[in-house]
Amino acid sequence: VQLVESGGGLVQPGGSLRLSCTASGFTVSSYSMRWYRQARGKERELVAYISGTGASISYADSVKGRFTISRDNVQKTAYLQMDSLKPEDRAVYYCNEGGYWGQGTQVSVSA
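Now predict its structure.
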């Protein structure tokens, strides 16, 4: 079982990034999926949630209206589209599905 994230990087404030989380080794449609982030010196926080079918979605207040979570169960991949990025969005982003964690991908927002 493995979750592999990609898509992080450095962007200017107001920019966009799309994170991907690709699963292998289990049936992803059976599990909800969550994106978390952890900034340096802070606790890991839940950013977005999507149910196994994609019918239920929720966001942290801090990203609502700017981030969009989605999934493609055929491709076994979930996405986090991040728009209007702010410096406070800087963190390592992790996906979590079926009790497993990805390795994390760094997102930096700086002019």
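Residues 70 and 92 are 19 Å apart (CA to CA).
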